[in-house]
Amino acid sequence: MNCKQPLLSAFIAAAALVVLPLPAFAVELYRYINDEGSTVVDYQVPPEYVKKGYEILNDEGVVMRVVPRELTEEEQKEADARKRLEEEALAEQARLREWDEALLLRYSTIEDIEAAQERALRDLRIRVSILKSNKRSLKQQVENYQAQAAEMERMGKQVDEARLQAIADLQSEIAITDRAIADRNEEIKAVQAAYEADIERFGVLLDMVEFRRNMMARQRAEKQKNMREDPRR
Questions:
Q1: Angle at alpha carbon of residue 39, lines to 36 and 45, rounded to 5°
Q2: Which UniProt keywords apply (predicted)?
């Protein structure tokens, strides 16, 4: 075997590596506007121009990404306000969608909502009635104790501490009951308002359903008319 053959093969392989194309490295270029208003393309953006925005290009000059300029304080406030309005609008859309779905799942007619409203209000009114009855009982007890105390004073006797404490405790319970009655009355107003809103919204949904039904009916009628006039359609 010729000993030169391995050396020749190695030389040919090395030569092939030399003539093979080197791997291409991605080069990023930056295009920006300088203080003179001229467009500059360079391998970097000077720090004083970064805030003004720039473009990132590939080695063929194609724009790969745009870095916008930094907003002024006033522009940032406006952008934040627009974003906040958009978020509020999306939140309102989601709220209405959930509300509509809940209404359509729970009720079939406005009468259903009105019946549910009456049941809820009736329960609350019963609670108020019970609280008022308790208040009348407490007031009667206070009046009894006060009459006893007045009688003792007329007889020249000193009203005992236990009786005075009982009157104070009963008056405290009456104040607590008054607050509970006020809370229940506010709850009645809130529940009534919520059901009224449900009724109004359900009416809107019914109108929308009716509108879509009429639109579909008109479209079907128009399609049938066109087919009669031109059977090839």
A1: 95
A2: Coiled coil, Signal
Helices (H) and strands (E) in the chain — how many of each? 5, 4
Residue 174 CB contacts under 8 Å (≥ 6 apart), including other chains:
135, 138, 139, 142
Q: What is the pLDDT of residues 136-156, one digit of tens each?
A: 999 999 999 999 999 999 998
Look at residue 9 and tell me if it is in a domain. no
- The pTM of the full predicted model, rounded to 2 decimals, is 0.59
- Cα distance between residue 28 and residue 44, in whole Å: 9
**Angle in degrees, CA 175, 177, 181, rounded to 5:** 120
Domains: count for the chain: 2
Residue 84 CA neighbour count, 13 Å, CB half: 6
Give the distance from CA 47 to its chain's centroid. Answer: 41
Question: Looking at the structure, do residues 120 and 31 belong to the same domain, yes or no?
Answer: no
In terms of residue numbers, what domain contains 55? 24-70
In sequence order, the 6+-apart residues with CB closer than 8 A to the CB of 201 are: 99, 100, 103
CA-to-CA distance for 79 and 132, rounded, in angstroms?
Answer: 56
Q: Assess whether 66 and 113 both reside in one domain.
A: no
